[in-house]
Write a structure and sequence with these properties.
Its main location: membrane. Helix content is 71%, strand content 0%. The protein is mainly α.
Length: 162
């Protein structure tokens, strides 16, 4: 479901002109497809009852680990940096060299621009808590389904002829 939302948000962003680069939309759609494949692996894990541990791992990702993942993403997505900096009104990831250029409006108006890492970190933390919470919710509903199946599977039909 998250992967389909990600693909839909990418299409919405290009439709409203929030994202100017088709490469960025392509990358977001590729990530959506990747997440869909991960969801399929998650379904296989759910069959083996490992979804609970994956959800807990998603919720247990600390700020330092989130920062490391975001920095790797920032360093590997040169085309998305301009869109991120323009939309979030920030320059650089943790620091910004004043000799570089930045498409953010704070840079154009010569105000002091804040780094992007704390802003992106807040969004990433919210997303991880949301996705982990959804995973836990479905883990508990899966446990309920297993209990109901165990309880009612092999009962005799009272209308059947003994």
């Amino acid at each position: 479901m998250v992967s389909l939302l990600l693909i839909g948000i990418a299409a919405w962003g290009i439709g409203f002109g929030l994202i100017s680069s088709l490469r960025v939309v392509g990358v977001v759609i590729a990530v959506g497809i990747f997440l869909f494949l991960i969801a399929l692996v998650g379904l296989i894990g759910a069959v083996k009852h490992h979804q609970f541990s994956v959800s807990c791992a998603c919720l247990a990702l600390n700020q330092e680990q989130q920062g490391q993942l975001l920095e790797v993403g920032w360093n590997n997505t040169a085309s998305a940096r301009d869109d991120i900096q323009r939309n979030l009104n920030c320059c650089g990831f943790r620091s910004f060299n004043t000799n570089d250029t930045c498409p953010a409006s704070c840079f154009k108006s010569s105000h002091l621009c804040s780094p992007c890492a704390p802003i992106i970190g807040r969004y990433a933390g919210e997303v991880l808590r949301f996705v982990g919470g959804i995973g836990l919710f479905f883990s508990f509903t899966e446990i309920l389904g297993v209990w109901l199946t165990y309880r009612y599977r092999n009962q005799k039909d009272p209308r059947a002829n003994p």
